[in-house]
Amino acid sequence: MLSSGSLRHAATRAAIVLYLFLLPFSPAAEGVDPDRLTRDVVPLAQSVSLTLDPAQDGFSGTTRIDIDVTRASRSFRLHALGPVIASATLHDRTGHRTTLTPSTVEPKLGLVQLTAPAELPPGGYVLELGFTGQYARNSLGLYKTVNHGDAYLFTQFEANHARQAFPCWDEPGFKIPWQLTLTVPAGLEVVTNAAPAQESRSGTMKTVHFGRTPPMPSYLVALAVGPLEYVDVPGLAVPGRIVTPRGQTGLAGDIARISPEILARLEEYFGVPYPYAKLDQVAVPEFAFGGMENAGLITYLATLVLAEPGRASFGARRGMATLVAHEMAHMWFGDLVTMAWWDDLWLNESFASWMAAKIVMQTNPEYRLEISELDGTHHAMRTDALPSVRPVRRSLQAKDDPEQVIDELTYNKGQAILTMIESWIGPEKFRAAMRLYFQKHAWSNTTADDLWRAFGAATGEDIPALIRAFMETPGVPLVTVTPEGGDRLRLTQRRFTNLGATSAPGRWQVPVVLQWSVAGRVQRQRVLLRDESMSVELPGLARAEWLQPNADEAGYYRWSLAPALNARLARQAAALTPRERLGLLDNASALLNAGQLAGDEYLSLISAFAGDREPEVTGKVASQLGAVRANLVPAEQRETFNRFSHSLLRPALSRVGLQPVAGEPAHVAPLRTTLLGELGRQGRDPEVIALARDLAGRYLANRADVAPEMAGTTLGIAAYHGDAAFWETVRAAFESEKSPLHRSRLLGALGAFRDESVTARALDYALQGPLNSSEFMRIPQGLAGLPGRRAKVVDWAIQHHDAIKGRSPSIAYANLISLAEGDDPAVFERLRSFLLDPARRDPAADANITKATERMAQRALLRQKETANVLRFLDAWPGKPATDR
């Protein structure tokens, strides 16, 4: 057990120097990557003083950095991308002052070299820098935003954005104490990672000196300035508050209520107390991500954590709990123990996602996260089937944008593999490995190898080899099950590929859990599939009613059964758990995409699940029907397909009811909204449309008059069928709305109008209206998904490319290609070619463009192969009107 108090003050200068030499550092990176900072000169602690006024466009500051020259040098490098260094001096232990000359050696990275008149002998020095800078306006670095007339300053420094605010060693391996001093207008509030230690005033300005932090990398430094307000959070292990923009403390009740239990559960699991002196959580009106794990000062996008009491939907409440648990888990994964370099970013994100799900399952079992989290796993598997996909753990150079690895593989695949490992070795051994890892590496940096060793030590098994294969090998395994006669079957593994993709090598240690039923008694057997193929004996298999190759859907692999076994399993699917039925459906979708299951067989299979009593299973069927319509049904046949889809989904809606009723299970709500959306848009169900228009009108008149579960969906359906006058009504409501929750719902509706006369107006509004950098692209993203609107959205994106790029956070701009990904290859190619033009090509976007191109090609091949099968199924459908035959 580590005492947070004793650890917090234990870092002496000598200890930090030793630590910086012992922390993991790739020799290849040091020798080959010239843009990585060396350890000839290392920081030991840094103090930053900033003069900040949100009413202005720029700022000034000074920084004092204790450094150690470990090797005689005349010059050394640090980062400053944006701040202009006006002065640079170095003080040695005797007080001698040396003026340094700054020069930029790599402008894109902000690599700055400081050069002394003569060689600096090894030893301790103090580096002092004076600088000025401009506030960013794209939610990255030190940025300015205006919310309802009030100006604020916030920060987002992960991954490489601290260098945009002040000069520093901006790499995760340099983990040092920090201390901030901020001078701001006297009427404003200011918060940072540490609590205030001292405050003074001079005229209209005040200066707040904050306490010294424990060691942390630059990307975790954070601050907020503005007319902020506070809600105390009682029950935490340390002092804590919810920090909101002006006038929004009344919306913080939900996050304040759930935070203490989440933090307590995390402390209990890790066996390590919360490692920081306070826990403030800030709701930010303009933010590039959902949340950020700044040590002691977590930041969130306000729309995800602020809501009027009782007005958040089931999905919003579940999302809030998961987000808060994820960011709090980072206080251990990522903050207390930090990756040495960005190629191990998954150590942060995979574990935080896995831990969040585990904690929320305990605090809020009604959210059924053990079922809903499979959506993320299956999404990762679909991406993992693409030919260009790279491993979760991948090598990055300093010139690479670390945000390129912030994707569904880093989060969801990593989480799924950890879930699989925990299921395989057992929760207690898994937890023992985690505790060993934190006890050994607290306040330091690690690589994946450190974690592998912890698993090996805690289990006594070769778990490291199992995990390494999944984390360092791209793709997802396909386990094929073939009967060999009697009670024996053969398991064969290879890399799963979609239709038309070239088979690629891949070998894993796959922890397969087979289950089968004999005379109604379910049996299980664990098999570690190390080789390409192996024979397995299952007692009673010859008499089994069914066989399922992925018990509890715990394994990260696809599976394929011999046709007879597959048919038998489908007939007996009611015997499976909800997770297993969801797995069966998603696996069938994967086999369709691989060309191993015909379109008519696929539709027959998923149709049988439309009446499933578990809401998540029926919701899965609805989404799969939508995918078939979008990818395999020609435009002239979509009316027939919509009638077929309606025949399956309308009874499900009748079963759950058009509107919530008292006493119904909370987890029914997401299914209802899914069905309403499908039937109200493409299905054009008159009763659903009438209901949506009625509720939308009532919602616009009085937000409290419509159940939270119904508001967003019915507003979107009414918009889909609305005209220009209704668009103006929604726009006016959006501009006057101050609640982040309601503002988000109204913004979503502004991009949901199918009326052609609204499209140009809505697109113009995206760039010219009062929308911030985290809002404006929601309108074109919504319009691109509407029938017949994608081409216009792509033309708009090309015409306004520079403005879009200038306003977008880099991670959002890198996914601009998603606007063109649909059923029109010519439209897609227009935007793809435009973005890949050398004049504007952005390397950070290349991976997304490549993946989108592969998905488009795969859809085209699948359409050629399976459209006839889908149409044959529709032609044989008993409900097809005679006029369509």
Polypeptide structure, described:
With 885 residues, the protein is of the alpha+beta class. The chain has 30 helices and 29 strands. The radius of gyration is 28 Å and the shape is globular. 51% of the residues are buried. Mean pLDDT is 92; it is low at 1-30.
The major β-sheet equals: 8 strands, mixed
Q: Tell me roughly what share of residues is in helical segments.
A: 40-55%
Q: What is the beta-strand fraction?
A: 15-25%
Q: Identify low-pLDDT runs.
A: 1-30
Alpha carbon gap, first and last residue: 73 Å
Radius of gyration: 28 Å
User: On the 0-100 scale, what is the average pLDDT?
Assistant: 92
Number of strands: 29
Strand order of the largest sheet: 5-4-8-2-1-11-14-13
Number of helices: 30
What would you call the structural class?
alpha+beta
Describe the global form. globular
Task: Give structural attributes.
globular, five-stranded mixed β-sheet, disordered N terminus, 21% strand, 885 residues, alpha+beta
Short description:
It is built from 30 helices and 29 strands. By secondary structure, it is α+β, with helices and mostly antiparallel strands. The strands form 7 sheets. The protein has an 8-stranded mixed beta sheet.
